[in-house]
Amino acid sequence: MFDYEFMQRAFWAGAFLGIIAPMLGVYLMLRRQALMADTLSHVSLAGVALGSLISMNPLLSGFAAAIAGGIAVEYLRRTYRTYSEVPVAIIMTSGLALAIVLMSLQTSLSKSFSSYLFGSIVAVSPLQLGVVGGIAAAGLLYFAILRRPLYSLTFDEETARIGGTRVKALSFSFAVLTGMTVAAAMPIVGVLLVSSLMVLPASLALRISGGFASALLIAVGTGLAGIFSGLTVSYYTDTPPGGTIALILLLFLVAGITVKKGVLYANKRKHPLHRERVHPKNEVKENVL
Amino acid sequence: MILSSIRNVVFGYGEAPVLNGISLEIHAGEFVGITGPNGAAKTTLLKLMLGLLKPWRGEVVIHKETLGDRGLKIGYVPQQVASFNSGFPSTVLELVKSGCYSRLGLFKRFGSEEEALVERCLKQVGMWEYRHRKIGELSGGQKQRVCIARALAGEPNVLILDEPATGMDRESRGGFYRLMRHYVDEHGITVIMVTHGLEEAQPFLDRIISLEQKESEEWTCLTTSSCSARFGPALFSE
Q1: Taking a contact as any Cβ pair under 8 Å apart, which residues of chain A between 178 and 217 contact chain B?
Q2: How far apart are the CA of B48 and the nearest CA of chain A, in angstroms?
Q3: Which residues of B touch A (CB under 8 A)?
Q4: Contacts of B142 in chain A (CB under 8 A)
Q5: Do B179 and A288 make contact, defined as CB atoms within 8 angstroms?
Q6: What torsion, rounded to 10 degrees, do the Cα atoms B170, B176, B180, B181 define?
Q7: DSSP state letters, B61-89
Q8: What H or E segment, with its residue span, contains residue B33?
Q9: Which among A155, A162, A283 has CB closest to B88?
Q10: What is the ipTM of this complex?
Q11: Does A270 touch chain B (CB under 8 A)?
Q12: Average pLDDT over all residues of chain A
């Protein structure tokens, strides 16, 4: 399998995406923006269509559109403070509508658009690999440097602001990073599946982790395992790589939730008083407060 | 010494003001209770003090020179912490450690000094034994205590609390008021607290600010009264 250069590139691209996308996914889910990746991929598609229409490099126009979409979502989120899912819905439908209209203006490009819709990780060009690698490196640096303010922001924006976190700048930079990652991932896994790389590993991590740091590690581990095994299965069974990866990630999620439920059930049976003992209302009173 | 001055502040959410012509001063090192009926704009007043809301008219001035070299460090415990995202995948320890982040900045290592501080704060609120528990597994009162510990871990010189004793039982509330009194007396911090439980809190407070409605429902006037309570060392043990 690794004798082929295209498979080597596919695994490298998968490794880069498998690190950055699930990390973003954890933060997005905690900020109740699970559909952000879907939204930005639709906006990015509109950017690609526009780029083709005005003879601009579609990769660049897709990038610009995704970043602009991320900023627009963040801007609208400040208007709809109590309905954080509303800006995502507004931008998603707007992006899709724009993409459909722009695509209809240039029917000759429909074939190239289908490659954006479904992506092809095994057709990653050296340029695309370089872009994904660069964004993954920038993203890792971003999370490493800003992990403390990002944690405060994600837990409670208001308290973070009072504590001195530059909430606005951080939120907008996070939206830009999300837009860049989506735009880079879109030609590889496709508009329809880009969100699976962010949401599915993060969903499992949030369900089974014992803390915040471990949630990030589990999400990345799950993302990498899903991508590598999906690519391998896809290579030997000749199934579409994007879909195979998404299905394997879904399998991991279902298996993880089932195992967690099984462990909890076994613990309850083993210790009949367990529930009573750990239930918060039955806690032993502390002697201070 | 005056820490904060609110001068002729007018603020509202719609067309009519909910706070009209409010003026008050907060002194450094005092324990102030803000009270009033539901809808009396107590939380709004706190948010104006914190700079989270901009007044329509008037001004809120923080006299930073009062605080000396350390500058202003605000610890804040918002209302209804129990309603926070219960699925947040954080342990109690991780959350309280995050209280030190504003002091540590981006790169300073979390050292033994901070570890000791976090341990002390968690013990003071009686949550040390729960440090490895996920916050989603805690009751409302326990989450409240953890958020108080988080605010204390930031070593603030001004602590602003919005109904902090919500969800605590009577014994815990008493311990909490003693703890705040200790921080005021021994550490010299200023505590501003919105509370409904004035009867229990009053013996520990230096001053009470009462928000009362005038004839017009939107308008709120304000009275202050001094309390004579001064306590010795706090009654808790670490």
Answers
A1: 205-206, 209-215
A2: 12
A3: 50, 52, 74, 76, 78, 84-85, 87-91, 94-95, 98, 101-102, 104-107, 123-127, 129, 132, 134, 137-139, 142, 145, 154, 160, 168, 171-172, 175-176, 179, 236-237
A4: 280, 283
A5: yes
A6: 50
A7: EE-GGGGGGG---EEEE-S-GGGS-TT--
A8: strand B31-35
A9: A155
A10: 0.80
A11: no
A12: 84
Per-residue pLDDT at B64 exceeds 50: yes
Q: What is the pLDDT of residues A141-162, one digit of tens each?
A: 999 999 999 999 998 888 888 8
Q: How many residues does chain A have?
A: 289
Task: Determine, for residues B168 and A163 on separate chains, whether the beta-carbon distance falls below 8 Å.
Answer: no
- Between A113 and A86, the higher pLDDT residue: A86
Task: List the domains of chain A with CATH numbers.
Answer: 5-195 (1.10.3470.10)
Of B89, B160, B175, nearest to A212 by CB-CB distance is B89
CA R_g for chain B: 18
Min Cα distance B45 → chain A (Å) is 15
Of residues A223 and B172, the one with the higher pLDDT is A223
CB A156 within 8 A of CB B76: no
From residue A288, alpha-carbon distances to A52, B121, B125, B175 in Å are: 67, 11, 6, 6
| Among the partner residues A148, A164, A215, nearest to B89 by beta-carbon distance | A215
Of the candidates A43, A41, A48, the one whose C-alpha atom is nearest the C-alpha of residue A62 is A48
A164/B168 Cβ within 8 A: no
Pick B236's closest partner by Cβ from A155, A209, A288.
Answer: A288
Q: What pLDDT, on a 0 to 100 scale, did the predictor assign at position B221?
A: 53
For A163-217, the pLDDT digits (tens) are 888 998 999 999 899 988 988 888 778 877 788 899 999 999 998 888 899 999 9
Residues B194, A193: Cα–Cα separation, whole Å:
48
**Nearest CB partner across the interface for B102, out of A163, A205, A211:** A163
- Select the highest-mean-pLDDT range: B76-80, B112-116, B234-238: B112-116
Instruction: Write phi, then psi, for B4 (nearest 5 degrees).
Output: -140, 140
Q: Which residue is closest to A216 within chain B, CA to CA?
A: B89
Rounded CA-CA distance B20/A257 in Å is 54
The predicted pLDDT at position B218 comes to: 52
Q: Do A30 and B95 touch (CB under 8 A)?
A: no
- What are the pLDDT digits (tens) for A43-64? 888 888 888 888 888 788 888 9
Q: Which residues of A touch B127 (CB under 8 A)?
A: 286
- Tokens linked to A5: 């250069």
Q: Regarding predicted confidence, which is higher, B105 or A250?
A: A250
Going from N- to C-terminal start, the domains of chain B cover 1-73+157-238, 85-155
Task: Please tell me the distance in Å from A249's CA to the nearest CA on chain B.
Answer: 20
Write down the pLDDT at residue A230. 92
**What are the tens digits of pLDDT across the range B91-126?**
999 999 998 988 888 888 888 888 999 999 999 888
CATH hierarchy code of domain B1-73+157-238? 3.40.50.300
Euclidean distance between CA atoms A75 and A9, whole angstroms: 36
